[in-house]
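Running log. JK asked me to keep both predictions on one page so they can be read side by side. First protein, sequence followed by its tokens:
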Amino acid sequence: MPDYLAIGSNEDFCRIPMGPITAQKLADLFGAAMPTSKLVDNIYVNCVTKLAPQFYTPVGNENELVAKFVLHNNDIEEQRISKGGELGQLTGGIKKDVILSNKIVDPTRTHHVVIYGWHQLNGLPIQPIYNGHIDTYVDYSHGIRFINSELLVDSVVVNYKNILTDGVLYKILSNETGAMERPSYLKIDGIPETPKSFGVITNGGESLKILTNEDAKVESYKIFLSNDGVNFNSPIMLSPDSLIISGLNENTIYYIRIKAVNQAGESPYSEVLAGIPSSNTNFNVLIVNGFDRASAGNTYNFIRQHASSFVANQQIFNSATNEAVKDGIFSLNNYPITDYILGEESTVDETFSTSEQNIISAYLQNGGNLFVSGSEISWDLDYKGSSTDKNFIWNYLKMQYAADAPFNVAGTYYGVQLVENNFIQNLSPFNFDNGTHGTINVKYPDVVKPLNSATGFLKYSALDTQSGFAGILFNGLFPNGTLIGKVVILGFPFETIYPENTRNELLSKIIDYFNSTVDINNQDDNIITEYRLEQNYPNPFNPTTTIKYSIPPSTEHYSVQHTTLKIYDILGREVAILVNELQQSGNYQVIFDASNLASGIYFYKLIHGIFVGSKKMILLQ
């Protein structure tokens, strides 16, 4: 028999690569297991025949085709025969091994294969432990070796997988850090699922409480605490009916991840949430982690940057997964401010599902303050979205898709600066992460355009605002709303802003905007008794000007009605729509940017119910 799994006979065979799922099923069928990286090293040391790795320059997908599998097998055989190697001997240097590893459950790369080895004649492996390929990928260099799943440990027969999951014995077989959560590419029957729907709330000055749905399969939870969201302490075991963590320090951020446990084993780690013990019962903020996408760099702990910034701004928060919001464990209406972390969440995992859209729409209709940041929101909901998605992003998030990145060029533009607006001022230009500042490389930041009286307040430094914005905000009534709500949207993840003091400063201004008790669209102290459409200022202008107008209180003639403010050229052609939404009584102002228009005379026309007004303005480019 050959050294790696092969098809055929002793006289006519081919070492055949295969994916980890197929290999795992065969291993289970034969009562065997795949090696760890430590065992691959040990096998090489004890190999009778050691060959130099034979590799080929990649050309298209040729390395993944059967013809290349056969060619590689023939080249190995020529080497083996010339070296005097015999079939059945341990032979090294011919394949990378598909291995069992802690990286099988890497949350940033789910459903991937882990490979290692292909030792050179100097004893060093070409391939370090690597899980970059999806689990359906195979090429000629991959090989499958099986080990008997029963081993003798101190004269006692012990199952290979049980050794790997034991907190002490795993070191016999593995040189990775910690015991393996799942020594298999297949989910093990009976083991609880990864906790998805849960949250952390303040429970007085010295404790936190975890809220989650009941799960009959879960017998207990392992609770892991951290002061930095990266390095976690040994677990605390808690019963599902008493998930209270006591003995904590008041006004200190604790980062928390959990595992569900039963007799069959324990789940992989959950994502990281956070809480802050406090005697203050005024919980202003709910931080919702909705970044579930298994993308490169997603460490599932970006709540660190959000939590620390809220605390730096004297805010008490609770936190939840977006699943916990969908499941009704948390109600957004209990929190004046909701912060949604969306990172690079996109079409596959959905930025906002239909049920989340309904929850958020109701929250905004009831006067909620929503802060959302992520780099794929408009791509998912507008460019790729359904009619329901488009209605939500246009009318509730108040924006539309403009481009997938500045100038539609990926991985190039990372600078942001403030745009003149009436709401947020005095913020220096800043940058977000290109992959070298500890979070993720935001290659595709959303470029968006404000809709329905929203205002662009941030731009990408290299991009003109006519092409789109990096951030928008809105203050007013939402469709079918009864109270004034507010939204602030960033086209890039908030957690990727650096340095930390810049994040804190921006969040401070957003909180001030949310907490303003004055209708920002209604700053005039004069009593409004009639419609008023003011002359734009400045006039003439180049390229921006401000248009102010007033809508009087409701009477039998004046009510909350549809409002439009449109721009026309001298020939009567519509060239821009500045407002197109329901508006209530108040003083309003809109900034018109005419960068893409030629010099000349233009008209702006306001319609609200029975009122129609228009004025002339002059653009001098």
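And the second, directly underneath as requested:
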Amino acid sequence: QKVVDAVVNVYDKYLEPDDLVGYYGLGDKWIFEPQEKGKHAKKLREQIVGSVEKAGDPHVYSSIAKCVDVLSTQVDDKYSKWLVVLTDTADFECANEKGVFDKGSKERAEKAVDGVVKQMRALSGLNLVVIDASGIANFDAKHMLWPTWHKLSQKLTDDVGDANTGLNIEATNADEIDEAFEKVAGAMSGGAG
């Protein structure tokens, strides 16, 4: 609930009616596709509030790829292109075809991130922010892939490309998630990117 409250706060406080906004559930689907906040502001806000329930497995890299694709093909250059990803960094798509994490999982995750990096580098003006909440994850704290997922989260923001900006913010509790969203919102309203 705290995460959704933080998103609603940014939506209410920092997004103007003519701002384009989209909201995607990692591993799930678009909660709403990018559109001007304007005339649908109340309905969009209700969809954010209603997104409190977890749905689907975390598919971080393919979800980022889908959002980057939309930013590159459907968002006019008059808009700043911000992609803010709140994640515990765990990506379940790197499991094998049986849904099991095996020795090939690390390589599959690295390959997926390399594809996302290539996609981002083809774009200019992207502002990627990853809010890394792995410290408060509800998933197996001893999982063999945590070091890989954490490293790849950092790679996404480090290797975003010279024409883009990347920021990786670690949030170890719900208050730090709020602070991270406030920091990002301030950068957005300050004209960064």
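Observation for JK regarding the second prediction: Helices lie at 2-14, 41-49, 60-73, 105-121, 146-158, 174-189.
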